[in-house]
Amino acid sequence: MTQTTAVHGEKVSLLRVLGPGHVWALGVGIVLVGEYMGWNFAVGKGGALAALIACWVAGLLYTCVAMIDSEVTSTVAAAGGQYAQAKHIVGPLAAFNVGLFLVFAYTMLEAANAITLGYLVQTVGTMAGFEGVHDKPFIVLTIVFLAWLNYRGVYATLTFNLVITAIAFIAIVILFAAVRPWGNEVLKLDGLLNGLPYGWLGVVASIHFGLWYYLGIEGTCQAAEEVRSPPRSLPLGTMTGIITLLIAATMTWYICSGLMPWEYLGQAITPLFDAARLTDSTFLMVLLFVGTMFSTLASANGCINDASRAWFSMGRDHYLPVWFGAVHPKTRTPYRSIVFLVPVAVVFAYFAPLDQVITFSILSGLLGYTYMSFNVIMFRTKWPLGTIKRGYEHPFHPLPAIVLLALCAVTYFAVFLGYGTQLVAMMVFYIIASLWFAFHRYKFVRRGDQFTMAWPRPQGY
Amino acid sequence: MNSFEILEYIAWAISFLLGLWMVVDLIRTNRAYSEEVLLSSREGDIDDALVIDPTHQGGHR
In this structure, is residue A449 part of a structural domain? Predict the structure, then answer.
């Protein structure tokens, strides 16, 4: 039966139930899988030392991202994160593009995680002696189960993420302690490090995969409309998240580079699990296998949360069909957006090769970071400190924005070295999408309704 | 059929059931509420008075 009158209060909104721990779980949960797998391809590009340089260069890039995001998001506390920021600070075309970057970065990352989880289950089946085991049922199950969890409510979803992310992080810390990093009995860094086998070009090339250590921490912004206290929770969750990742990334590099020669490490599928196997401890093997599975699940889970919020907010603003801007009156989630993105993720996870899916995700993320550097400069120019209330003010402005932009330029070059065709193809895709928005979709946007922040007129306008 | 194949069929079955549950609930929700209510969320709503919980304050009628 159709309800003809609005529910009490005439509004159904997303539920404000999250705390800083959930924000941390969302950001770190998306990223931590990068410590369990993926980062080590940087070793293959330029050697173990190059991977360490990439770890810290990318760490600097993401520290800038976290600081910039913390300031802007603590002020523009709206679902959609960077999309909502771009809408208020830059303009509609930038916002549309940033929204698409977010949706594709997270949906592709979700697909990549599902492929990985399917592969892990398939490997377990093969190791157990079964023949002809398939990964597809588990790929689809991962996506559908996590979408269902997201559909049911944000609190349970991110509490689940908090638990499994914490276990995955603690597993790395336990492995680090178990290999006795203070001595040379287990770790053989003296013998295994071999300088820079491909020189400084190898270092630049390795930065492409160095992003894996932190890719996705900016996803914390998507929870802006569901946290109880955005000015406090978002900066706290994001900054503790990047600190956690810097620690986890350095520990991971130290453990793996001290246990495996770079020729093997550079192409390993599950380097941390392999490191646990080399310790000959069954407990550590089981723990790191569980950590690998949990980190993959947490990442896919956070990606569904973030992609659906970005899609939802674009629908709500008429940047996409407004149908997607609906909130479920009982579960208080953007249910149509969650369901719509399920087949998209399944199709990519089912048919596309893993490296292409990952590259699409990385490039979309990178475009988003490039935008952030311009965004924060415009934000500080239009609304200088003191003109509006900020939950957090990042230090040394505009240095983080300049560093971020410079590092993005280096990373584009690094990606171009390995995936030049994909880079060009993706740029063409976003240009076509922009043309569609500018010449067709923008006429549906209610221009005045877009600006929801009670800010004064920007300086110079 | 080995036990791993059974596991694969279970995974397909669970995926199907969860997917079906979401689609059915989506259709039922779309029918039970007006679009005005479903699309009433506004960006940056932070006034608790506007945030309702249908399980306690109404819901399906």
Answer: no
Report the CATH number that the domain containing residue A21 is assigned in CATH.
1.20.1740.10
Residue A74 amino acid letter: S
Buried-state track A107-143, b at ≥16 Cβ within 10 A, e below 16: bbbbbbbbbbbbbbbbbebeeeebeebbbbbbbbbbb
What pTM did the predictor assign?
A: 0.90
The pLDDT of residue A9 = 55
Q: Is residue A91 part of a domain?
A: yes
Which positions in chain B touch A228 (Cβ < 8 Å)?
Answer: none
A13, A15, A149, A322, best to mutate vs chain B, most B CBs in 10 Å: A13
Q: How far is B20 from chain A (nearest CA, A)?
A: 10
Would residue A419 count as lying in a domain? yes
Rounded to the nearest angstrom, the minimum Cα separation between B24 and chain A is 11
Contacts with B4 from chain A: Cβ below 8 Å? 125, 128, 130, 133
Q: How many CA atoms lie within 13 A of A134 on its CB side?
A: 16
Q: What is the pLDDT of residues B7-59, one digit of tens each?
A: 999 999 999 999 999 999 999 999 999 999 999 988 866 544 444 444 444 33
Find chain B residues with C-beta within 8 A of A80's C-beta. Answer: 43
Indicate yes or no: CB of B4 within 8 angstroms of CB of A325: no
Find the domain containing A112 and state its range: 16-444
- Structurally, chain A folds into a number of domains equal to 1
Q: What tokens appear for B61 in the block?
A: 């009628």
